[in-house]
Amino acid sequence: QCQKDKEGADYVCPEGTQGNGNFADPATCRRFYQCVDGYPYLNRCPSGLYFDDISKYCTFKVEARCGPIATTPAPITEAPTDLATRCEPADCQLPYCFCSKDGTLIPGGLEPEDTPQMIMLTFDGAVNLNNFDLYKKVFNGKLRNPNGCPIRGTFFLSHEYSNYAMVQKLAHDGHEMATGTISQQQGLQDKGYEEWAGEMIGMREIMRKFSNISRSEVVGARAPFLKPGRNTQFKVLEDFGYIYDSSVGVPPLPIPVWPYTLDYKIAHECKAGTCPTKSFPGLWEVPFNAHYVATYEGGHCPYLDQCVLHNHDSDDVLDWLQEDFRRYYEQNRAPYMMPFHTNWFQIKELERGLHKFLHWASEQEDVWFVTVTQALTWITEPRSASTLNNYEAWKCDKKDLPPAACNISNKCALPFKHPDTNFTDTRYMETCTECPNQYPWLGDSGGTGIPGKDNYIPDNLK
């Protein structure tokens, strides 16, 4: 007997343990079925998004792999030698190493009630006129931490269409800037060392040259589409002095996972299948715990805008976020990362629901909004929540800020010849520094017009 969703389309959930979760609609990539205890519920992706049957969430059309797709193990592209071993807590001591058998233990052996509940607001992609004012509404100075400091976020910046005067403004206001990639290219997870260095270190150089952000302030990275680059990406981060990566997805777990160093084998399933397998001592991973509620209404997602909440009003969104948050707050108080793309803020009920949640969360006891680096600083030296009002690392005055952004930026019309074509067009870029000769790109982060000019030398070889 076929079970039917509300629209009458026949669909049978997979039998056995695979009967719970999200599954592609065979008829269209715009919809998917959410199976709960064998019963299918039809869901539609938000406008402009498509269901990816590998990652099991709604994403952009260029990223979506329409289903149904038979699941097969990820190909092994590296010889399994020199692999990281399982966590040995006795040999892994803070501040340089942290792991636990299942990833859920609180650093320093603190009890949950003595642990601050950190919230990390993170934003992926370009910063420009499409989102700058929306982000400023989140960080309008009204929401403050228990020590009176305004809340701050972390931006994983990608290059195309970014306004570097706006980026400089955000950095000057104390927000953390981290690297996405220059091109956001598909398939980077299978590329080599030079490609990863060109993308990530090149992005860091673009921020330095056009937003006046020093290299020492850019210490975090995120792979495009949450597809880590196996061991290659992490070797680049290690060589070029990064402190953390935040690209590894965690499946829906009853208790969320804390950040950990990559000294040992990752304690949870690797969602993407392209996680590092070797040891990278002292390099932190800030994982993407899956967002979901007990009924799986809206599905589960790494980025909040990939859960299907667009048909909810703002109070429904508030309720959903509160339930998701309580899984952290009422259990092990792992940092609650709230990752967004711009499209969350373009749906007004989602934006209103988020603002309601932020106000509600800021009124809860021992809740702190921190950047990723601020969270890791606490993790390396845990201290009781009752002592944090005078905690130096979370004070309002942030050191090494870039200079204030200019009032009138340079609006640069720059020639751009994409490496894959012979066609030259014009790209526009705003910056408080001088306009480059041409649009900055891979191999020429300074926009000199000399292809392949960049030559990145790892920190340990300088």
UniProtKB/TrEMBL annotation:
Residues 10-68 form the Chitin-binding type-2 domain. It comes from the Eukaryota. It holds the Pfam family CBM_14. GO terms for biological process: carbohydrate metabolic process. GO terms for molecular function: chitin binding; hydrolase activity. One of its GO terms (cellular component) is extracellular region. This is Chitin-binding type-2 domain-containing protein. It comes from Pieris brassicae. The lineage of its organism: Eukaryota, Metazoa, Ecdysozoa, Arthropoda, Hexapoda.
